[in-house]
Amino acid sequence: MFGFIKNGERMKKELGIDKFIKNLISKYLFEICMLAMIFAATAIRCRFASETTLSPDYESYYKPWVDFYRENGIIKGLGNAIGDYYVPLNVLYALCSLLPVEPWIPLSVVTYVCEMLSACSIFGIFYVLTGRKHHSMFAGVATLFLPFVAFNGSLWKQVDSIYTCFILISIYHMLKQHYRATFIWYGVAFAVKLQSVIFLPVLIILYITEGFHSYDKVVKDAQARNSFSILEFLWIPAIYLMAGLPEVLCGNGLRRTYLSYLYQTRELDSEGYGMVSFFPNLYNLGFDDYDSLLSTAAIMLTFAVFVIITYTCYRKKENLDKRTVLYLAIWTAWTCVVLLPGMHERYDYSVLLLLTPFAILLRKKILWPMLIANICSLAVYARTLFRADDLINMPVVSLFYVAAYLYVTIDIMKLINGDTGEKYGEA
Fold first, then answer.
1. pTM for the whole structure
2. What pLDDT is recorded for position 327?
């Protein structure tokens, strides 16, 4: 009898537990699924992080840099400014030298934290644009599974996620019309890595067109439209100068510290990159070895394209709502990596990170170009990390990649000119 009573009490407890679990699932199933996806993304990074032989840069650059700081100390190390990065990344490698572990451990942790910050920013950006919390949250978490994101930080040990996360924070504030915060965070991104300059054109265009227009309530007064002063651009050099202070104080010298980006732009000649370094743009179509002849022309072509798009945006500024400005930010950055010389394999990281959820959530018309660009990116990573040189034909990959870019170019030009009827279709 007592055994029966005890069994009954145990069954009631079990039923209570089941009820609790089912209520939890009923209320928070979406959040539980997001946590499960984050766990899976973390597990992927943990498996990739310890692999150091596939990275073409870890054993040759990053580990020796950390070892240099271990042997010479941070002050002497920063005073000699080993490597070709600007100060914030040099400080990162210096700090890694203080930990009694292999350098890939802290580097992988930092890049993954920045990937998570990027995912949060993606959520914020698309929540502002769509008002759909779950769609935007899923978009942010899903970016952690994009191949180039997973491979870049944990497997390659690259740092593209670091400057990208600051760019995305800047774009979030831009869409919220917090312009000072926009330029401060963009200044941080620029101080981390020169490649963040590919998002500068959209800020210039936004200034010239006096802020956002038809997506918000259209008003005549520029101040009511919450435009911003040209003085806000001064945050970019100000933060760049402040970021260089650690090396200056350690004795590296003003010239060597603050001209770091100028020295980086000369690597086309000093390191023999040619017009392109394994990036799938149009210079793979037989133009790579003619950098001394074509580099200036490529830069001027890019400049001319931006003059045309800026003029078009000013004439049609009533069509520049927040969604179109985000699209414009993606396109201008993509234009830089397609047209400028000396682009590396990873330089479209931030472009694809924004293009992918944008196409899925807001612009299904460009789903195919987005998928093609991601597949081309995967092919480039396969070639670089997994030694698939024999399988990957770069001219063919470049043709598909440039075709995807041109399709998007035509689409955004029609959108800015107001030729497409209904603008956006949400998921």
1. 0.91
2. 97
277: β partners? 344
Report residue 264 CA to chain centroid gap: 20
Q: What is the pLDDT of residue 421?
A: 54
For helices 2-49 and 133-142, the axis angle rounded to 10 degrees is 60
Alpha carbon 414 to its chain's center: 26
DSSP reduced 3-state for 193: coil
* Residue found under tokens 């949250």: 137
> How sure is the predictor about 215, in pLDDT bands with cuts at 50, 70 and 90?
very low
For residue 105, the SS3 value is helix
Q: 414, 90, 347, 88: which is closest to 199 by C-alpha?
A: 347
> Any idea what DSSP says for residue 276?
E
Of 73, 57, 59, nearest to 159 by C-alpha is 57
Note the pLDDT of residue 212.
76
CB-neighbour burial class of residue 364 (10 A; exposed 0-12, middle 13-18, buried 19+): middle
- Which of the pair, 159 or 218, is modelled with greater confidence? 159
Angle, vertex CA 82, rays to CA 118 and CA 60, nearest 5: 75
Both ends of the chain: CA-CA distance in Å?
Answer: 60
Please report the pLDDT score of residue 271 as a whole number: 53
DSSP reduced 3-state for 255: helix
DSSP string, 364-375: GGGHHHHHHHHH
Q: What is the pLDDT of residues 344-358, one digit of tens each?
A: 889 999 999 999 999
Cα dihedral 386/391/396/398 (nearest 10): 10
**Rg of the chain (C-alpha set):** 24
Q: What is the pLDDT of residue 10?
A: 57
Which residues on neighbouring strands pair with residue 343, listed in sequence order? Answer: 276
Helix H or strand E segment including 424: none
Q: How large is the average pLDDT for residues 112-132? A: 97
| Confidence class for position 267, pLDDT limits 50, 70, 90 | low
Chain position carrying tokens 């100390």: 73
Do 283 and 273 contact (CB within 8 A), yes or no? no
β-bridge mates for residue 423, sequence order = none
The answer to whether 380 touches 345, Cβ cutoff 8 Å, is yes
| Calpha distance 348→381 (Å, rounded) | 12
At position 115, the amino acid (one-letter code) is E
- Inter-axis angle of helices 349-361 and 367-385, nearest 10: 150
Q: How far apart are CA 52 and CA 156, in angstroms?
A: 8
Other beta carbons within 10 Å of 228:
21
- Return the closest-CA partner of residue 227 out of 288, 177, 297, 270: 177
